[in-house]
């Protein structure tokens, strides 16, 4: 099936199947609607329009790598101010994301939940079949809606290439 990919990503060393189309650099950024902390619909492209975007997908904020990934991007994008939109998507419920945000002290990453429809995971080809988790992935989308960086991290328990993602974000300014 064209919207199923195996062998791209592993979890704990075991291959997983990703659902949805693979997004590549140069593609038009797919849109999706997730849920924000107030349980409202949150349409990605509309809410981030006019700015370069950092889109960080993590399985769950309550795991060490996801926690560190979100904190690291939060610190890095703080220096760029309101010129960029920085979003973390996870399957965590909105109330769990709110708790995590308060405990972590993050201020720049907008946390949104993919739990309702897995819309982000499906749109970006990052939904892990059978687990209802999004894999670890990072995308940079320029202000015009074109993907400038796409990384599906090969092993879900490993970190993304922060430097490449942030360089792509700065280049999109």
Q: Average pLDDT, to the nearest integer?
A: 96
Helix content: 25-40%
Overall geometric form: globular
Beta fraction: 25-35%
What letter string, H or E per element, gives the SSE order? EEEEHEHEHEHEEEEH
**What is the CATH architecture assignment?**
3-Layer(aba) Sandwich
CATH-derived topology:
Glutaredoxin
- Strand tally: 11
Cα-atom radius of gyration: 14 Å
Q: Can you tell me the CATH superfamily? A: Glutaredoxin
In the sheet with the most strands, the strands line up as 7-6-5-10-11
Distance between the termini: 37 Å
Description:
- The protein has one domain: Glutaredoxin.
- It is built from 5 helices and 11 strands.
- The radius of gyration is 14 Å and the shape is globular.
- The model has no long low-confidence stretch (mean pLDDT 96).
- It has a 5-stranded mixed sheet. It has a 4-stranded antiparallel sheet with strand order 1-2-8-9. Strands 3-4 form a two-stranded antiparallel sheet.
- It is α+β, with helices and mostly antiparallel strands and 173 residues long.
Short summary of the structure?
By secondary structure, this protein is α+β, with helices and mostly antiparallel strands. The chain contains 5 helices and 11 strands.
List keywords for this structure.
5 helices, 173 residues, globular, Glutaredoxin, four-stranded antiparallel sheet, alpha+beta, five-stranded mixed sheet
Task: Describe the SSE topology.
Layout: E1 4-11, E2 14-19, E3 33-35, E4 41-43, H1 44-47, E5 53-57, H2 64-78, E6 85-90, H3 94-104, E7 110-113, H4 119-123, E8 127-128, E9 133-134, E10 137-141, E11 147-152, H5 162-171
Parallel strand pairs: 5-6, 6-7
Antiparallel strand pairs: 1-2, 2-8, 3-4, 5-10, 8-9, 10-11
């Amino acid at each position: 099936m064209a919207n199923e990919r195996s062998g791209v990503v592993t979890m704990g060393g075991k291959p997983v199947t990703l659902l949805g189309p693979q997004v590549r650099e140069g593609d038009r950024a797919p849109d999706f609607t997730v849920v924000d902390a107030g349980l409202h619909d949150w349409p990605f492209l509309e809410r981030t329009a006019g700015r370069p975007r950092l889109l960080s997908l993590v399985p769950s904020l309550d795991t060490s790598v996801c926690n560190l990934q979100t904190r690291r991007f939060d610190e890095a994008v703080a220096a760029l101010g309101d010129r960029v939109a920085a979003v973390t998507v996870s399957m965590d419920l909105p109330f769990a994301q709110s708790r995590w945000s308060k405990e972590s002290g993050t201020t720049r990453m907008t946390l949104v939940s993919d739990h309702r429809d897995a819309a982000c995971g499906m749109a970006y080809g990052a939904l892990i079949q059978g687990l209802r988790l999004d894999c670890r992935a990072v995308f940079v989308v320029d202000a015009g809606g074109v993907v400038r960086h796409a990384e599906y991290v090969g092993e879900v328990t490993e970190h993304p290439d922060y430097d490449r993602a942030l360089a792509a974000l700065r280049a999109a300014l």
